[in-house]
Design brief:
189 residues, alpha+beta, Lipocalin, 10-stranded antiparallel β-barrel, 18% helix, globular, Secreted protein, signal
Length: 189
């Protein structure tokens, strides 16, 4: 084999290797969120402005537990420590589940509902449509669409129930970490 052909083959192999290592939008999103592991942030309710359960309360998220494939993010509403968002990364897709607990740590009857992305999304937004388990558990939530956005300054958690007026949006300030809260209900320190 002449040296020019060897050089061409070598260049092709390098190009192929570089392309195969390209980071997908889902992985970029995952990596950005992972960079906040161990940190806690406060935020505000943007929609609906007059929500009786969330309005006027301190909203805190804590990117508490992280691994290569799972992140657990407790979300506190005032003194209510019942909610944890669970994100799972597998096969370049991200799943979102909601873990709800009672004060004694037992599971709520409505628990582990959510959805999974249908594509790699974008590096700053991932969209989760309600899955079959959610539809069976909460028939009214069959048209739920959740999305999470993240950039250098904000993390948003959003919900829209298509075909209804149901909308929910929380915006967390990533520029100003706060003191880490205690464990959510049902967790051991």
């Amino acid at each position: 084999m002449n040296s020019q052909l060897k050089l061409l083959i070598f260049a092709c192999l390098i190009s192929f290797n570089a392309l195969s290592q390209e980071i997908t939008p889902a992985k970029k999103f995952w990596n950005t969120l992972q960079s906040h592991c161990g940190k806690a942030y406060e935020g505000v309710l943007e929609l609906p402005k007059e929500d009786k359960d969330f309005g006027g309360k301190t909203l805190t998220m804590h990117v508490r537990k992280c691994s290569e494939t799972e992140m657990k993010i407790p979300f506190f509403v005032g003194e209510d420590k019942s909610r944890t968002w669970i994100l799972t990364y597998k096969n370049d897709r991200i799943a979102l589940k909601h873990d709800h607990r009672h004060k004694d740590g037992t599971e709520d009857d409505v628990n582990f509902y959510g959805g999974i992305t249908t594509n790699t999304g974008k590096s700053d937004i991932q969209v989760f449509s309600a899955d079959a388990k959610t539809q069976q558990m909460i028939p009214g939530a069959a048209t739920n669409v959740w999305w999470i956005t993240i950039d250098e300054s904000t993390f948003t958690y959003n919900l829209r129930r298509l075909g209804t007026d149901r909308v929910f949006k929380v915006v967390m300030d990533l520029k100003n970490p706060v003191k880490k809260p205690s464990a959510p209900w049902g967790w051991k320190e």
